[in-house]
């Protein structure tokens, strides 16, 4: 089966080579010119992309970085709050274990004391 696929590739390559060789010099330049125009159009589209525009302007880049930093900070605080709340809840259920239970009780007293003060 690999011999057949190899033969087909050789046949396809030879057909592509024949097609390429059959083109005149003007036709090759025309094809090259068309491909260059397509590449240029794609680069223009990429250059007008919002991210590229943002990174090309220093004030926009600073504003974008500030917003990104604020989002990361807020996400970290919210994530830590959720994780610690779940941890305190789980630990409050473990008061049965002697060593951990005393430690958890003291932590819960501190947490409850702070809640009552507020």
**Number of helices, where a helix is a run of at least 4 consecutive DSSP H or I residues:** 5
Unreliable spans: none
Order of helices and strands: HHHHH
Structural class: mainly alpha
Rg, nearest Å:
34 Å
Inertia-based shape = elongated
N- to C-terminal separation?
A: 78 Å
| Number of structural domains | 2
- Please give the share of residues in helix: over 70%
What's the main sheet like?
Answer: none
Mean pLDDT: 79
* Structure summary, number of beta strands: 0
β-sheet strand percentage: under 5%
Write the layout of secondary structure elements.
Layout: H1 2-22, H2 25-47, H3 50-56, H4 58-92, H5 98-117
Helix pairs in contact: 3-4
InterPro entries: DUF5665 (IPR043723)
Transmembrane segments: 61-91
Keywords: Membrane, Transmembrane, Transmembrane helix
Descriptive notes:
The structure is a single chain. The protein has 118 residues and is an all-alpha fold. The chain has 2 domains: 1-48; 59-118. 90% of the residues lie in helices and 0% in strands. It has 5 helices and no strands. It has helices at 2-22, 25-47, 50-56, 58-92, 98-117. Helix 3 crosses helix 4 (58-92). The longest helix is centred in the middle third of the chain and has 35 residues, at 58-92. The mean pLDDT is 79.
Q: What descriptive keywords fit this protein?
A:
single chain; 2 domains; 118 residues; elongated; mainly alpha; 0% strand
Structure described in brief:
The protein is an all-alpha fold. The chain has helices at 2-22, 25-47, 50-56, 58-92, 98-117.
């Amino acid at each position: 089966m690999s011999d057949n696929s190899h033969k087909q590739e050789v046949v396809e390559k030879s057909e592509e080579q024949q097609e390429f060789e059959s083109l005149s010099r003007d036709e090759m330049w025309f094809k090259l010119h068309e491909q260059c125009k397509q590449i240029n159009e794609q680069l223009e589209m990429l250059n007008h992309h919002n991210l590229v525009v943002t990174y090309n302007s220093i004030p926009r880049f600073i504003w974008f970085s500030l917003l990104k930093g604020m989002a990361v900070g807020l996400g970290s605080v919210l994530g830590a709050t959720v994780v610690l709340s779940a941890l305190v809840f789980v630990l409050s259920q473990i008061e049965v274990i002697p060593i951990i239970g005393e430690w958890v009780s003291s932590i819960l007293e501190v947490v409850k004391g702070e809640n009552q003060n507020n």
